[in-house]
Amino acid sequence: MDIDDYILAHTSPEPDYLYRLWRATNVHTIHGRMASGHLQGRLLKMLVEMIRPKNILEVGTFSGYSAIAMAEGLADDGHLYTFEINDEMEDFTRPWIERSPVADKISFIIGDAMKEAPRLGIKFDMAFIDGDKRTYCECYDMVLSVLSTGGFLIADNTLWDGHVIDRAYDRDRQTQGIELFNDYVASDPRTEQVILPLRDGLTIVRKLKN
Asked: For residues 101-115, b (16+ Cβ closer than 10 Å) or e, as one string?
């Protein structure tokens, strides 16, 4: 047993529905590893239960795994709004969300969150960013504009397979986007933050002021 197996063996079990979604994502999509998976999914659910948000914003639905995991942790009056800009994912993702046990807590929207999320007129207590790495800084500013003071923003892939410290990837635009984001957040007086070395890096940000 390696350390990853040990960790999963001592983490709350992955619900069967999410396991089946994870399997289907890896079989039927090109980038199956983008799905949050067992460990990150259980962490996201627990963070929701700790933060107790009324409204969650997700940027980047992909196959719906993280949206469903977070919605599992919502209170009865909580709701999650998830945006996916790639309309080619809709045929796969929408049925999985709509047949899930938490379908009534999720609004799945095909569109550009950068433009559409502010138009909802909702103050969010928590947000999860897992979209285009090249525009993470712009997405971060958008999310902060609709996030309540004291609210939490979680950004995925902020270590980017270690590429953020590998000079061989200096010309890669996605790596550049993550590096700019990490530097921007670290110097932002509006927030406090910590990077967790979980999977591909998970940054937890708390908004202190506007």
From this structure: ebeebbebbbeebbe
pLDDT tens, residue by residue, 159-207: 988 888 888 888 889 989 999 999 999 999 999 999 999 888 999 999 9
Answer for the pair 39, 45: CB distance below 8 angstroms, yes or no: no
pLDDT digits (tens, 9 = 90+) for 87-117: 999 999 999 999 999 999 999 999 999 999 9
CA dist., res. 78 & res. 53, Å (int): 7
Task: Give the Cα separation of 201 and 159 in Å (integer).
Answer: 5
Which residue stretches of 52-200 are H helix?
Answer: 65-72, 90-98, 113-119, 136-146, 173-186
Crossing angle of helices 16-28 and 90-98, in 10° steps, is 170
Q: What angle in degrees, to the nearest 10, is found between the helix axes of 65-72 and 37-51? A: 40
